[in-house]
Amino acid sequence: MKTKREEAVIEIINTFEEMSDIVLTQLTLLEKYMAKTNDEEHIQIASKIRENEDRIDRYEVLVSEKFINLIILYQPVASDIRKIIAIDRMTINLERIGDRVMNILHATENIIDSQEYKAMIDVLTVMLLSGTSMVEKALLSFINNDNEYAVWTIKNDVVVDEMNNKLLINSISKSKVSDKTKEMLLSYVDLKDIITNLERIADHATNIAEASIYSIQGTDIRHSGLESAQTGNNEGK
Prior knowledge:
By secondary structure, the protein is an all-alpha fold. It is built from 7 helices and no strands. The protein has one domain: Phosphate transport system protein phou homolog 2, domain 2 (Methane Monooxygenase Hydroxylase, Chain G, domain 1, Up-down Bundle). α1 packs antiparallel against α4, α3 packs antiparallel against α6 and α4 runs antiparallel to α5.
């Protein structure tokens, strides 16, 4: 029979996993929105994204409240504290990923019919899928207690950053624009906004992976680097 403390920890983990599922759903919905289907479906997807954003915000508060209650009421042991601190860090980053999804939605709404956006959609989609994969792997690392998923996520952050640096150059070479310079420049401002937020999603995935490594092996690699996590992983085998 589980103690009240153990039940409280499990409840926090379950709440965190529910929040994680919503954030991953947001990324899937964003991919569908950016692909531009019919107008009616577009409106429905945007409405669902906004509805889910409110749910994500509520989950962040709920996890924080459960965290505080656990500390006050049940005096968790050291291993529990490490896990819930990691969850708290990951929850903050999940909420920020949700914010980035909203930023991308707003920017996409402004330029989805422009030639500049159409020229970039394939690259933007690849970048979104890369970021989504990083978030998934980082979360699986924590849920499955698998250090390798977290290491993979952190290594792939560099790949996404390099992709971001090439995006504007690619868009310029692909675009066939008219002489409406003002409209073009405004479109590129929004494109840059989308690109920046896509890169930030990958950064937040890296933060989640780092928190997962902390939970699994007690190594805080935010300043010491990935090598310390890999060393700790090898020692544990």
